[in-house]
Amino acid sequence: MDLPKFESEFEKDVFIGLRSYPKYLKSKYFYDRAGDLIFQEIMELPEYYLTSSEHEILNNMKAQIFSYLKPDAPFQLIDLGAGDAKKTRVLLDYLIQQKSNFTYIPVDISANAVNQLTSSLQRQYGNLQVVGLSQEYLSALRSLSQEQKKLVLFLGSSIGNFTRNETLDFLKDIFSTLNVDDLLLIGFDLKKDPNTILAAYNDNKGVTARFNLNLLKRINRELGANFDLDYFEHYPSYHEEKGEARSALVSLRAQGVEIPGINLTIRLEKGEKIDTEVSRKYNFIEIQRLAEQSGYEILANFTDSRKYFANSVWRR
Ligand code: AVI
């Protein structure tokens, strides 16, 4: 069937996802202004161990991480999906204290996030060289000077939100923008006790539920839909063999929803799910395999005291 003409990728993706079976929505659409704020709340939750674990690693291992760069040469620290750069500040503090010669380049699709971050960093650090880029990751990486060495950050287990194919493609694409000896620091959430993982996506205060439901709110607002949020519920699950934490929205009754902005009406059965997110968990064998398949050499794997999370240093 020929697809109707859409005004944006969002419209097209919502149309395709909600006409599929099982229905799905892409998790990248969580991050509108409200979603960004709810995600910040998630990162403060006791159950969401990912943030504190990665913070611990970066704090304890910052000297080792930067020891893989030549100490005197100026370099570019590129932060993909920087957001509010909360964790990166640990690294920035260290580099400034070491009087390192570097340019910090936060990259985020949201121009608003990049502008806010750039001015807040300039306020906090005075003479830090910051060049914020609100672009797709790859075009940002391709636009940078090839003269200086690069350390690319991809923190927070964002890699876990890609499909398996997207993961390898992404890593290979990044590789193609790097020079020999450039570095990539990636955050991976590790496989562990399933209850610990499930709790991270099913917090007591219901913040993650609000995050998930916000996607329907966004479709209501931007596409004029009439999702009734009282009749959908956050439905998290963890599939241990696959290492996949999944989130869905389950319909609490048989219902119809109209989405005039994309000229679509859908029906949901009672108990039918709309898949909204996969968060992949890794072990060290899988991390090694990913690095090999995309052409990198692993220089080090750092973990936190609970062995919940890993930051892996890769060299092109
Ligand atoms: C951004 N990303 C790594 C988070 C995760 O853990 O997959 C998004 C998230 N979804 C629910 N809670 C947090």
In short:
It is built from 10 helices and 13 strands.
Describe this protein's structure.
- This protein has 316 residues and is an alpha/beta fold.
- Helices cover 38% and strands 24% of the residues.
- It is built from 10 helices and 13 strands.
- It has a 7-stranded mixed beta sheet with strand order 4-3-2-5-6-13-12, sandwiched between helices.
- The longest helix is centred in the first third of the chain and has 19 residues, at 49-67.
Fraction of residues in β-strands: 15-25%
Strand arrangement within the widest β-sheet reads 4-3-2-5-6-13-12
Largest sheet: 7 strands, mixed
Overall number of strands:
13
The helix count comes to 10
Associated small molecules: N,N-dimethyl-L-histidine
> Based on CA inertia axes, which overall geometry fits?
globular
List the SSEs and their pairings.
Layout: H1 9-19, E1 23-24, H2 33-43, H3 49-67, E2 75-80, H4 88-97, E3 102-107, H5 111-125, E4 129-130, H6 137-142, E5 149-154, H7 164-177, E6 183-189, H8 194-200, H9 207-223, E7 232-239, E8 244-251, E9 255-259, E10 264-268, E11 273-280, H10 284-294, E12 297-303, E13 309-315
Parallel strand pairs: 1-11, 2-3, 2-5, 3-4, 5-6
Antiparallel strand pairs: 6-13, 7-8, 8-11, 9-10, 12-13
Helix pairs in contact: 2-9, 3-4, 7-10
Question: Which key features would you list for this structure?
Answer:
alpha/beta, seven-stranded mixed sheet, 38% helix, binds N,N-dimethyl-L-histidine, L-histidine N(Alpha)-methyltransferase, methyltransferase, EgtD
